[in-house]
Amino acid sequence: MAEEQTFTQEQVDQLKQEWIEKELNPLKTQLEELKGKLPKEKTDEEKALEQKQAELWQKEVELELKTNGLADFAPFVTAKDEDDLKAKIEQLNKIVAGLKIDSSYKPDDHKQTSEYDKYEKEGNTIGMISSKLSSLFK
Fold first, then answer.
1. ∠ at Cα 78 (58, 85), nearest 5°?
2. Which of the residue ranges 25-29, 53-57, 94-98 would you say has the lowest mean pLDDT?
3. How many Cβ atoms are within 10 Å of 83's Cβ, its own excluded?
4. Which of 84, 85, 83 is nearest to 61 (CA)?
5. Is the CB of residue 120 less than 8 Å from the CB of residue 104?
6. What is the pLDDT of residue 49?
7. pLDDT of 81 higher than 80
8. I need a labelling partner for 56 at 20 to 30 A (CA). Which of 39, 79, 106, 130 fits?
């Protein structure tokens, strides 16, 4: 059987003090360091401020797009800052300019209409004959 040990109050206090210094205090400091690294909970005011800033930035993006004639693209444009926004606006302007050129009128044939063809469309037979005769006597 194991013998029971008895300690005096002084010994208990000394053991307790040693335990506090060796075990508890390092754990407390480590806990405080970890608490400092945790993200802080945002207050309702901070959340509301961030929401207002996001809304303001979106309005600024929409306004900038509108001034550049690109308001239709507002739902598709997301930019993190002004430089990013300017770069995206430049790209969109290049694309839109290319689309304007591609969709502009392009004639299918570039033939010159002769005098004979002109009279033929009008149904003027005298003009058709005179244009043929004038080409013979050049």
1. 85
2. 94-98
3. 9
4. 85
5. no
6. 93
7. yes
8. 39
How many CA atoms lie less than 13 Å away from 12 in the CB half-sphere?
A: 5
d(CA 7, CA 67): 86
Read off the amino acid at residue 17. Answer: Q
Average pLDDT over residues 72-78: 85
Question: What CA–CA distance (Å, rounded) separates 57 from 63?
Answer: 10
Q: Tell me how many helices (H) and strands (E) the chain has.
A: 6, 0
Question: Mean of the pLDDT values across residues 81-90?
Answer: 90
Distances (CA, A) of 111 to 108, 114, 117, 119, 137: 9, 9, 11, 16, 24
Residue 93, CA distances (Å) to 1, 3, 36, 58, 65 in order? 92, 91, 48, 19, 10
- CA 54 to CA 62: how far, in whole Å? 12
pTM comes to 0.46
Give every CB contact of residue 15 below 8 A, 6+ residues apart in sequence: 7
| Residue listed under structure tokens 């407390």 | 28
